Amino acid sequence: MAASNPNESIRLLITGGTIDKSYCPVEGHLSFSRTHVLAMLKQARVILPEDQVQTLLLKDSLDLTDVDREIICQAAAAARETRIIVTHGTDTMVQTAQLLAAKQLVKTIVLVGAMVPYTFSNSDGLFNLGFAFGVVQLLPTGVYVAMNGRIFPWNDVRKNSAKGAFESSDT
């Protein structure tokens, strides 16, 4: 039986990444103070109960350890929801997707992030997060990356830093 609110079957796992970074004028660099994902959901008018939003980490993906990735996998496995969105930094998103796929969870898992922080005026974060919410409801069981308006299976995606976009591995 389908849930009366499709979002009841979605869990959002927050891990940090560019999407959640802010500019710190005192230190003159990007850093984490808090997640911006709740503000993004509010702006997009996405109704998701707070108990379905779980902040696991606030880290740049280049700083993620094997232990951090295992925390992400354990949270996805433990979730009662069958559809999982993971906000993640773009540099090692594919690595985490690969590990999640190896766990063979019977869930639909979509990793998403941003090339530009949400707090910047030209951010792709809000669009990417909204796109992830749409596709997680439509895709079959598996692990995917949703970036730049495209859906990629975990094993056919790479980040092209020169283009500032994700693409199929065979491109």
How is the secondary structure organized here?
Layout: E1 10-16, E2 22-24, E3 29-31, H1 37-44, E4 53-59, H2 66-78, E5 83-87, H3 93-102, E6 108-112, H4 125-136, E7 142-147, E8 150-153, E9 158-160, E10 165-167
Descriptive account of the structure:
With 171 residues, the chain is of the alpha/beta class. It has one domain (10-157): Rossmann fold (3-Layer(aba) Sandwich), CATH 3.40.50.1170. It is built from four helices and ten strands; from the N terminus they run βββαβαβαβαββββ. The protein starts with 9 loop residues before the first strand and ends with a strand.
Q: Give Rg in angstroms.
A: 15 Å
Find the CATH topology: Rossmann fold
**Structural class from helices and strands?**
alpha/beta
Described by strand count, sense and barrel closure, the largest sheet is: 6 strands, mixed
How many angstroms separate the termini? Answer: 40 Å
Number of helices: 4
Beta percentage is 25-35%
| DSSP strand count | 10
Number of domains: 1
CATH superfamily: L-asparaginase, N-terminal domain
List keywords for this structure.
Rossmann fold, alpha/beta, about 170 residues, about 25% helix
Compact overview of the structure:
The protein has about 170 residues and is α/β, with parallel strands linked by helices. It has helices spanning about 35-45, 65-80, 95-100, 125-135; strands spanning about 10-15, 20-25, 30, 55-60, 85, 110, 140-145, 150-155, 160, 165. Strands 4-1-5-6-7-8 form a 6-stranded mixed β-sheet, with helices on both faces. A two-stranded antiparallel sheet has the order 2-3.
